[in-house]
Amino acid sequence: IRGPFPIGFDFPYYWYTVNEFYFSTNGAISFSDNTLYHVWPSMGYTTELPSPTRPNDILVPLGGDFIFGSAGGGSAYYWTNDTDTSIISWIAVPEWNADSGYHGSHTFQIILTREDSCIVFQYGPQTGTFMCGTADDPKTAIGIENSSGMVGLQYLWDNSPQENMYEEGLAVKFIPPVTGSPVRDVSVIETTAPGNRAIFLLPGDTLRPWLKIKNLGNQLVGHFYAYCKVVNHTQTTVYLDSVVVTDIAPGEIDSISMPSSWVPENTGIFATSGYVVVEGDMAPANDVIVVETPVTGVPGVLSYDDGICENAWAYTYAGNGWANKFTPPRYPVRVTEINYFIYGASFPDPGGNDLIVWVLDDDGEDGAPGTILFGDTLLGTVIRGAWNDIDLGGAGVIIEDGSFYVAAVQYADYPYCPAISCDENIPYSRQAWSYLGSTGAWEPDPTQLHDWMINAHIEIPPGLDAELVSINSPGDIVGAGSQITPQVTVGNAGLTTISFDAHLLIDSLGSTIYDEALAVNDLEPSGTRDIDFPTWTPGGEGNTYTITACVDLAGDDNSSNDTLFATTIVAGGDYLVWDPDPNHSSGPIIDSILEDLGYAGYYTEELSNLYGFLEQYFSIFICCGQFPNKHVLLNGSAEADSIVHYTENGGRLYLEGGDVWYIDPEQEGGYDFRPLFGVTGGGDGPSTLTLVTGENGTITEGMSFTYSGESRYSNYVEPAQATMALKNQSDNYIGHYYNSGAYITFGFSAELEGLDDCGGVSTRRQLLQNIMTLFETGVEENHGDINEFSVLWAPNIFSGKAVLSYQIPRKSRISVNIYDISGRLVKKFTIYDLRSTNNEIVWDGKDERGLDVASGIYLYHFETKGYSRHGKLILVR
Asked: HSE on the CB side for 369, CA within 13 Å?
């Protein structure tokens, strides 16, 4: 729909005159109604003339489903001599066909002549037959009707009668009556807001309802009532007032304000109607207009829909879109979130999950969408049949005046796209807009008989608001002794340029070990800036640090976004539990038991941030789950490669999973761990695992478990170099361990969580203790020679550093703790001595925080598997 355009003179039409028109691409014009003319009765529209259904006041030279565009061509023109003749033309316009796209070509025009008040429809070349998407829809209409839709003439409807079919050379002349029977018709043309468009109010706001009426008849009408009424979502009247109209002449327009005002008390969807009650009115359909009047809070949601989807729309081609126009009830506001309800999987078919989303300013031509204030492309993340919420970030979008638009733009061609849902229940907001990507033009949606289910969340932004947006560094995991440059991102979420300080503190063991502040100068509204602090060196493996970052702005209006916290762990420890099992069955149990046994470690469900730190862990426990809830360690993946590299370089690896040993490598592209674990062959086990028993002469001797966890065909394996340690009820091997001389592995074809503790040695705790002993000693029992054990500090009185030289009988885990004279832990060392039996530890007189300790006497405790030693050191500054 385009317009209004000037006719150039007052044209007599029925019993009134008109001087402008709206152009409809579907082969019609209206002298007063900016609603698009449609030809689809199956979608709630009608082509039969006359009809009170909008649009009214129309001339239809050839009503059909036309489409203008670069692919199909088509042009439209209008001309006037500004005296007595005006011509509106459609030139070579194709029709839209659901099966074949652009089709046919049609040329026709309207000629208006003031001298005789005649209307002529004239037809040029015609090719193609209108289908309008479905064969049972009426396809064409030719005729005219008046402003009420109650009076008119129909020349053709649904291509009938055949003798009236449009063809090249045809001309149809209409001579509307300018005199005749008296007509009483007072119409409401506007109420509550310009264009009958929805307006947002706040509770406590004052609205003075009004309406604009016009006498469309040919009689003076007097002494009737004009009303304004407000109802809530249950149709309960919350406001009603009226004014007596003494008289209104034919063609006259009158604006009427109600004597009283409405002050909403609560938020909700309200509808304001303006209507007239005129005795003998011949067109009651135009006696009332209903305007949506939502009442919201701030913070709150701007929304026109009732939450119920009646229909959905998708364009044929990508690049086209939809938008809702929102005018906030207060300024300034910050848009923090936008929402889109996407239609379900049934339409389109197969559909898609990609969408472009925008927030736009109203700085386009005549207040149309203009500058993109926020944009994002959702690739593969759109959820069909649900609300999709997009967070605009901490700064959001600031609206200081006017309106803004929230838009969705189709990313892919139909039918490989999602559809935007719409609410078709009254009242309508008349704030829906459409976008034509080929021209970049926005326009109010032609029908305005629905509301796009597109919403916006708003809040009042603070005037002064420094924001701590994120802590970028250090990350969750850091390496011991690494040089870290702490970094944060700060932002200005307020309305004015600000200068402030950014602080970063690092705490360990209840004490602050790092405290830095940097100035941030002249940060503009909505701006962000990365701040790099001086370097920091974390302490030993397993240490945990608390990071506190904050901003300090004098007069900050919003303290809720000033501070963020993070936790950083120094990689390393006795164990790492990686739990990619979707059900997370065994991982938390293994972590809990190992911690209870006195080991220090780390549990994670994500391995990627630890790839560079795996060798800092003495042992790794991996839980892959049981079919169908399993994780496949794919051959060639970063996960598998990092695990293999860790193991082959002296690691201790526990790996459990029902399909890890046969199904995954043989059928699902999984990495083949069998050679690394010293086993071979194998296959599917029984459909249900019920019993797990140990083997004599192994670390599982005497163990027998019932099994009640997940189990579906848990794989079995055959021995190669490994020691076979566990069997199922069918005497298939499902547990094994292997000491290659360079590394040690333990594999299990089920889940430790499924083992039922049966008393004695048959407990999960005992099994894990035996596995850790195997990992620590490399043997099943401790046969070391005490004469091969020695510990020596030199010097034991020192001022710079002291060196601990030790010898142990076999490769093992070593811990050295240093305490002050009060017994407080000052420094700890954990060594995983996997490659040699003679080593050194150097203490530089610093504590776990990296700070120099005071002069005095310090006690040390050295411990490894089966051996321990303690003594004292003296530090002299």
From this structure: 29
